[in-house]
């Protein structure tokens, strides 16, 4: 209960700050954008931020921990803060929060649906604060910290949500288009990981896919983050005597960007790297599991999604991220290696 008390106390203080603190008028193109979600949402938002920057908006960013390099690489924005943690008790004394209280903006746009994002939006002085709710849910007081909110439909794609938020700020943006995918030369990048284990196609099938690609004279790289110990151990053993496939280990967002830059094709699960592949226009095959396809599917003409209909999708795995709620992970197990090979042959034809 102590954590909840600190949270409500912080939100109450924020409410009085935004309601009674006078804000000086500033250039209407001075903008702060807040995105606290992980890699996937960040990659989806980046095209809209780029458009704002191209239209002359003086844009600062507050982003999730470890993602500043991603934002700087793809938007060119220089002033970027990383939200350090989610400890409500420590937030009041956090140096980033203190620094933000010194800033003045015309508009703050919070693109994350969570009370913490609303609290961060209350830190700087601003004439307008815009946020988002979903299906009329008000998220424990977060609505009270915004000038206005966009009420998203539950199945509305995140790109549409972001576009509407920017429209409320007077920023005209275009939805990401179907620009031609760019493959070029390089390896086939296979990504067997995902933060939520029910979103992972079996590692044994990724190995079979790699074996097939080797017979077709492709170089293959297994993209694995150092934290994915189980996947790393499996492929370390499985690839010990192989030459055509090797492990590409990442430790930072910079490592991931460089790995994707040198890939000709990408095959992976519903995950953050999938959205990075879409952002970088890599021809891709995505193996779709329990995620909400309508809301978070990757966009772009180069993204080919293999999805089998199942009545329990979307399953969010909030209770246990390591186990399918039905216990069988049918959505992914129903995708065969042969099906993926067929899609991959079509994708790589004429290489």
Automatic annotation (TrEMBL):
Lineage of the species this protein comes from: Bacteria, Pseudomonadati, Calditrichota, Calditrichia, Calditrichales
Cited Pfam families: Glyco_transf_9
GO BP terms, alphabetized: lipopolysaccharide core region biosynthetic process
Any one Gene Ontology cellular component term annotated for this protein: cytosol
PANTHER family reported for this sequence: LIPOPOLYSACCHARIDE 1,2-N-ACETYLGLUCOSAMINETRANSFERASE-RELATED, TETRAACYLDISACCHARIDE 4'-KINASE-RELATED
Keyword set includes Chaperone: no
This protein's UniProt keywords: Glycosyltransferase, Transferase
Annotated source species: Caldithrix abyssi
Name of the featured protein: Glycosyltransferase family 9 protein
MF terms in GO: ADP-heptose-lipopolysaccharide heptosyltransferase activity
